[in-house]
């Protein structure tokens, strides 16, 4: 399935309406800077970014379902694989790799070679605890919730904090809705 | 020159690193929503958006100069035409039309068929005075300032306010630097 999803992701990326990545990076930078002004504690900034991402995820899923061409997902694992291979590719240009699935298939790590929102970012020392791209965790949580999976989602490794990779850990909390039955043919 | 700039704009857009437009729209929406929380008066929100855009313009000009392939500009008019035809196209996907140049060539209107940041936006009544895409005015001001032209830049027509078009009026205030002489060959 994975190879197939990669192709679908490439196609979804190719046909989506696109703008220059730099403009997103800088607009996102302005958003983080505003939150840094508004909230003192790094934890609060992380939380706000995650909440904003959650709202974005709840809306962006519509565009995804309408335009990605991704196949219907039957379970949590398929949904997360599709999110990583098609969703990340379609919206950020870069697919995420999935690794370290637990045996129960309820937890997984999304690994990104580069974090598209973080280009040229360096964090001043007092913001060492800031997960700059934490919006992405919220986007994943918000969009998975809209397709029936309540998850927790947090950076496990963060290159801006000196880690060697960018990794988001996704943990299933609850299956909210049974998936509707597959279409009759 | 205009036809040529359109081609250059198309090429600059084609080769730039791109991401999905929807993600920018939603991220920008989160930014505006945060400012709405932070500032009561619509005027202040407009001003903050413009300031943020100004900072973005001062940085995005580097990418523009490095990658747009646009020819060297010899005067204000050429710089604004290049901004409209190449810059808007490269960063927002949509070129702006220039119209109503004054005889002295110090004022012009940038007209956009669609305002890329405003997709699906409707303003609640109490924000009727909000120039939602006011960041763009700042971006134009910031980037023109980096190439030697201090300008004022404001929405003259705003489709979100019920106008039939999106138009930004650009007025030259001061030529800051004489342009350096053209390269010797």
Q: Secondary-structure element sequence of chain A?
A: HEHHHEEHEE
Spatial strand sequence of the major β-sheet of chain A: 2-3-5-4
CATH-defined topology of chain A = Muramoyl-pentapeptide Carboxypeptidase, domain 2
- Distance from N terminus to C terminus of chain A (CA atoms, Å) equals 22 Å
Largest chain-chain contact?
Answer: A-B, 30 and 30 residues
Mean pLDDT of chain A, to the nearest integer, reads 91
CATH architecture of chain A: 2-Layer Sandwich
How would you explain this protein's 3D organization?
- Two copies of one chain form a homodimer.
- By secondary structure, chain A is α+β, with helices and mostly antiparallel strands.
- Chain A has one domain (2-175): Muramoyl-pentapeptide Carboxypeptidase, domain 2, CATH 3.30.1380.
- In chain A, 47% of the residues lie in helices and 17% in strands.
- The first copy, chain A, contains five helices and five strands; from the N terminus they run αβαααββαββ.
- A four-stranded antiparallel sheet of chain A has the order 2-3-5-4, covered by helices on one side.
- In chain A, a hairpin with a 7-residue loop joins β2 (97-99) and β3.
- In chain A, α2 (21-38) runs antiparallel to α3 (42-67).
- The longest helix of chain A is centred in the N-terminal third of the chain and has 26 residues, at 42-67.
- Chain A is globular and about 45 Å long.
- The mean pLDDT of chain A is 91.
- Chains A and B meet through β1, α2, α3 and α4 of A and β1, α2, α3 and α4 of B.
